[in-house]
Amino acid sequence: VSSYAQAQADAVSVVTEEKFFCGSLELIREIKTTTTLPLLQKDFIMDEYQVLESAKCGSDALLFIAQLRNEFDVSVFELCKRYGIVPVIEIVDEKDLNFAEHAEVIGVNARNLIDFTIDVERACRIIEKLPKEKITIGFSGVKSRKEVEMYKQAGAKAVLVGTGLLKSTDILSSISNLKNL
């Protein structure tokens, strides 16, 4: 995590989902002691109890996946805000746009959650449809500066880079190159 801070990353994404991704809320607690960077907790958040757990462990932002929800639950977002947690709604396709209207921060995932293919161009088309006053983040598919530029051109204000950094042997250089520092 110190490499992320040194490379001027804006935040750190932490997967806490246990069953499928072997994550843990304990990761948030541990990482929180080593950095002042904001931590985005990625999990399958379904109810208010999970928001309370996230607040207790120190999450700064919490991911809500639109495709896991039948309808928007404003009370969960309000609970996040009450505890100083930024709710981030993740959308994948145009069907999810109705969820985006309630969120200030929206991640548009280039990864299809059914077959796991990645299509940055599709994600960019969705970003272009979002209101400019929203904070939009391009999720997935960032392998080089090219994808960062595509997201930026579409209107994204940030990108989330996961696998690309996990596979990197030089995180400092990778982040610097993506940020064009």
From TrEMBL:
One of its GO terms (biological process) is L-tryptophan biosynthetic process. It is an enzyme of class 4 (lyase). It catalyses: 1-(2-carboxyphenylamino)-1-deoxy-D-ribulose 5-phosphate + H(+) = (1S,2R)-1-C-(indol-3-yl)glycerol 3-phosphate + CO2 + H2O. GO terms for molecular function: indole-3-glycerol-phosphate synthase activity; phosphoribosylanthranilate isomerase activity. CDD domains: IGPS. Gene3D superfamilies: Aldolase class I. Keywords: Amino-acid biosynthesis, Aromatic amino acid biosynthesis, Decarboxylase, Lyase, Tryptophan biosynthesis. Residues 3-177 form the Indole-3-glycerol phosphate synthase domain. Pathway: Amino-acid biosynthesis; L-tryptophan biosynthesis; L-tryptophan from chorismate: step 4/5. This is indole-3-glycerol-phosphate synthase. It comes from Candidatus Roizmanbacteria bacterium RIFCSPHIGHO2_02_FULL_39_9.
